[in-house]
Amino acid sequence: MNALGVHLARRIAREGPLSIADYMGEALVHPGLGYYMSGDPLGRGGDFITAPEISQVFGELIGLWCAVTWTGMGAPDPVRLVELGPGRGTLISDALRAAAGVPGFARALDPYLVEISPGLRAAQSDKLAQAPVRPPVRPPVRPPIRPPVRPPIRPQWVDHFAEVAEGPLLLIANEFFDALPIRQLVRTNEGWSERLIGMDPEGGGGLAYLLSAPGALAEALVPARLRGAEPGETVEIRPAAEALIGAISEAIATFGGAALIIDYGPAESAPGDSFQAVRDHRYCHPLADPGEADLTAHVDFQALAGIAGRAGLGVFGPLEQGAFLQTLGIGARTERLSAGASEETARALRGASNRLIAPAEMGSLFKVLALVHRDQPVPAGFEKMGG
Ligand code: SAH
Fold it and tell me: What pLDDT was estimated at residue 40?
């Protein structure tokens, strides 16, 4: 058993079985031993690869989306640009580069990166230092010898969204919500139980799943729309994601702004066990070697949209990622980049874009949800208000 496993075994001996949320919290963000807290989880060969790492076009289109949304907000200055879980900083640096040409936008930005991992904070800082944002190119009287370069954008790093200063808000999150802790409730023949994690009574004394005694406590946690699950089915709830969306929605309702949430999960809530672990690009058992694999669960877009809607926001989507990127012009942007590139690079660019939009790849499983202040226009890429 690894060091985090020993720590968890002691905690279980002391406190009794853990919820899956307790376990995810420890395995992902335990100081020193959690997956995101030790080194660079996205660096060492990469356990998984995300959309901004596949193609620069992803971050560029999101940057332009932010700039257009900002214009629709009445171009507030300052505006908080918040990215939740920026990973290696690729999305934000591609986004800022692409959006720098929109007059006034770069100057108005007060960027915040919500990031808990020290290793990834360092990677984000390096990435942004490499990518100075140029001011918009205006027709010069005489062509300058070198284009003037603005000092690199200096974001503030915070651990939690609650630390972001109040004000008009543009928020982006790609594959962040899937890392937030979930709880699992299981419909048994005797009623609802919670799936917990304790010590395996047999075998080598490792961690093992168990079920709480069925009862009203677990049943009370099941959302009404999922109470009809069949015996044997699992229902997931996401208290941290819901609280966070509540706080974001309140900020947007009060100060104006928008949030763009991209992640994987179904458009409509459904029973199912989506808790998974990935290590070295392979699925593994979520309880094996805690802290050494990435743990995620599907995002419940219907639940998030419901909370934002009740807070009075305009809710757009969820749309499939493929459709969203195509509406924003991924095809044209890819061709534009390919035109100036070698045949090999052009092939790679087209292949990367295809991976983002093809239904069999990331195009359908990944969804995009936009939450917007009621007085603002329909956000780019969406047609009309949804649920
Ligand atoms: N958005 C990036 C990275 C996704 S991985 C991309 O698309 O490539 C998830 C990111 O969220 C990582 O940067 C991770 O360190 C961060 N993260 C995970 N849980 C967090 C938490 N509870 N608080 C703050 N950041 C967290």
Answer: 63
Ligand 1 centroid, distance to 85 Cα (angstroms): 3
pLDDT, residue 132, reads: 56
Nearest to 357 by CA among 32, 58, 2, 49: 58
> Helices (DSSP H) in the chain: which residue ranges?
3-15, 20-29, 51-54, 56-72, 90-99, 105-108, 118-130, 216-221, 239-255, 301-310, 321-328, 330-339, 343-357
How far apart, in whole angstroms, are the C-alpha atoms of residue 1 and residue 233? 31
Angle, CA of 201, 202 and 204, to the nearest 5°: 105
Q: Which residues contact ligand 1 via a Cβ below 6 A?
A: 28-29, 36, 50, 52-53, 85-87, 91, 114-117, 120, 174-176, 179
Which residues of the chain fall short of a pLDDT of 70? 39-48, 131-152, 203, 384-387
Cα–Cα distance for residue pair 345/320, rounded to 1 Å: 27
In angstroms, what is the span from residue 369 Cα to ligand 1's centroid?
A: 18
The rounded Å distance from CA 384 to ligand 1 centre is 30
Instruction: Give 232 Cα–ligand 1 centroid separation in angstroms.
Output: 32
Q: How far apart are CA 26 and CA 6, in angstroms?
A: 12
Backbone angles phi, psi at 67, to 5 degrees: -65, -40
- Residue to probe by mutation, ligand 1, list 22, 91, 115, most atoms within 8 Å of CB: 115
Structure tokens that stand for 130 in this block? 């490499």
Q: What is the pTM of this model?
A: 0.93
Ligand 1 closest atom vs CA 36? 15
Give me the phi and psi of 189, to 5 degrees please: -65, -20
Residue 375, token pair as written in the block? 């007085």
- pLDDT value, residue 387: 46
